[in-house]
Amino acid sequence: MGSESLTTMVAGDSSFMIKTLYTFKLNGVSLNIDTTHVALLLVSVFILVMAVIARIKINKVDASDTPGMFQNAIEIIVEMLGTMVDGIMGKNANKFVNYISTLFLFIIISNISGLFGLRPPTADYGVTLCLGLITFILVQFNGIKKNRIKHFTALFQPIWFLFPINLIGEFAVPLSLSLRLFGNVMSGTVLMGLIYDLLSPFTVAYPAVLHAYFDLFSGCIQAYVFCMLTMVYVNDKIAD
């Protein structure tokens, strides 16, 4: 399949399926650039640009200056995320606040990108699974770093023959995290796609209300839940 119009990225083309935008060959292997790749790129670039602008502006601020709207917004976001991490992780918050904040911003911006005509990257299981695996690696790494051999012997507690169940519980972490996020975002994407496809003559005003719920409200909730569970899993491994 060759290049397709980038208008497949906008809400007017309401199909909820992942679309191939461009196909090229590399060493005889066909590789596709699809809507998920483009949305991921746009979300990542947006976060990087905002972070660079915030860094530059804050470095130029004098203590006697009156904070502008942008600075106030950045400070509110940073304070909110710091409070969230501190409230769950306590004394361990400083070690993980940067990662959790980045994770939260990436997920929430990805989730609400549907408001701007993109197909949310988190509606692709390949994206949410990677996020779940990153959390799984973080949990296991910190568990081994903190507890050494006890990290593995804990799998035999409280009774040795519970080892299979405990092991399954460990590997269920990335699956539960990724499937929960994917399922909730994908369900909203599918429902909005069906509404636009089947009820297109009547989609005048009410889709805005549905977008506000599926993209904004549900997207924020899912971002918080993913980050909260990540902090709980990490804290459980490094708790004294």
From TrEMBL:
Regions that span the bilayer: 36-54, 96-119, 125-143, 155-175, 181-200, 212-234
InterPro entries: ATP_syn_F0_a_bact/chloroplast, ATP_synth_F0_asu, ATP_synth_F0_asu_AS, F0_ATP_A_sf
Protein purpose: Key component of the proton channel; it plays a direct role in the translocation of protons across the membrane.
Similarity comment: Belongs to the ATPase A chain family.
Xref: PROSITE patterns: ATPASE_A (PS00449)
Entry GO MF terms: hydrolase activity; proton-transporting ATP synthase activity, rotational mechanism
Record keyword Cell membrane present: yes
Membrane disposition: Multi-pass membrane protein
Gene: atpB
UniProt record, GO biological process: proton motive force-driven plasma membrane ATP synthesis
HAMAP family named among the record's database cross-references: ATP_synth_a_bact
Domain of life the protein comes from: Bacteria
Keywords: ATP synthesis, Cell membrane, CF(0), Hydrogen ion transport, Hydrolase, Ion transport, Membrane, Transmembrane, Transmembrane helix, Transport
This protein's name: ATP synthase subunit a
Localization per record: Cell membrane; Membrane
GO cellular component: plasma membrane; proton-transporting ATP synthase complex
